[in-house]
Fold each of these.
Amino acid sequence: MAYMPLDKSTFHLDRSKMVKIHDLSNPWGVDTPLWPFPGPRQDLLFPRGQYLERFHKRTMTYTGTLHAATHMDAPNHVLHEEEVDRARHGYSLDEIPLEFCIGTGVILDMRYLYDEFNAKWDAAGGNHKKFGDVWVELKPSHFEKACEKDGLEIRPNDWVVVNTGFHKFWRKNNDKYFNYYPGMGPEVCDWLIFEKKIKGITGTWGATDAPLWHHPLKQEMPWLEQIYREATGKDAAVEFPDYEYCHRKFMQHGVCTIENAGGNMDDVTGRRMTIAAFPFRCEMADGGFVRLVAWEEGSF
């Protein structure tokens, strides 16, 4: 039968009696913002193979990067196999142990960084030569301050979610989102792994590493290197002399990393929740889309 009239009398699922699941993911589609590599990028493509008006069903194919919108990186994205304990932590996306992908955790409130950035941007009138150093590299003190504010603590095997507020720029101003987000560097990476012993990290940022930690910046993001030099008078190659340390270190130690979190994060910021994000089982994939979600602990 080609047509199936809607029959509301058969509806039996009552959402009001279900556990509230909070979506911390950004949507993705044809206009998804992509990490700004210096070369040309291909948009995400969704050609249809079958059409409702002819076949009474729709089928689509997808062509594009696996590193778009809210996604998890796999170790083989940045590490050679000899650099990874594959049996323990997995290497490609399909090998990541599922118990790493769910657990209790905290959603930390660092939205003041969004407000501070906007104040500096407005004071400079958008002229990068007047910015000064508007880039924030997150330190352990930022995490401790956020925990203290809401009475939280980072426990061993926690998932840590960071709300910097920069998800408000997603699709509204992708230049600000990707080039100026507060992000992580080697110091806080090692602190989270070896002192706090977390199992997962994500935030409202364009990459697991802060934008300036993409050495050599002059090659990887030449426009940003020029802006940084003219705004601060500093040499990015001297100040940030490594490429994606956090990517490599987190994944080498089995810490799941998810980029471009957002969605309804503001609704649960400052709380301890159960957090989950399961990657699809794609062989040899170096990353892939996830639905990052959170719910009240003990609600199931």
Amino acid sequence: MRVVAILCWLLAFVAQPAWAASSPGLRSLEQQLAFLVATSPGDVGVAALDLKSGEVVSINGDEPFPMASTVKIAIAANYFAQVEHGRRSLDDTIGGRSAYRLIEAMLVHSDNYATDLVLRDLGGPQKVQDWLTQNGLTGIRIDRSIAQLLRARRDLRDVRDSSTPRAMIGLLQRLDSGQMVGPSSRSHLLYLMSRCHTGRNRIRGLLPIGTQVENKTGTLSGLSTDVGFITLPDGRRIAVAFFARGGTNRPRTIAEAARAIYDGFASAWRTSFTALSSQSQTPAFLPSH
């Protein structure tokens, strides 16, 4: 199967790639990710966005994958937005705990019960879906509570409660830029995501020690996901989304893809900087003799 996957990748590469680089400097990264995905068992979707330059790379970026617990980012963000509009407070008591403590449990410890309490207080999945739609987001579906999702027969190709990798980085970009929540809510959200305790062998697994990461993982039988932000040494931040369905050792695949993105974006920036520096040192014209 591995040989077949490699041959398929080579044929696709020679014929016409299923991805398009937004920058020549990212072509090598996209090829590396495509090879990683093709040689990994199961289905893998990857998307990454440089929040400063707007450059994007993705493999299977428009393929729907179950979100699992990564949906908790959208639910938490919707609650923060409600607070900003004066409709709710982080001090509100829901199920015996403050809203802030519930959101903390959702994002840091991936507490499913806390998530469903907050979701029910917001009015249910459709209310959060409506909020995403109002903010121009497509490619993300929120159909069920966490309890309903876990009770249902497992179908990892069910389009309910799914997101494409591109749609997920679109959500992250809007949250980071202040289009969906204000500065205070953004700070709360990133702080809680920076404390994520689950899935440390995924995005964080192979990154250099000390790399700043804000993320949220998701897990179902046969599925591993991880989405969030990676900060590069030069301060640039990359929004990333990884979905791995089926196969084996999915966390390792995510970790390898995250490291490839970290190295690839850093390398592309250095290449662009060197090219610009060389151009700036070249005379605009040559004097005539």
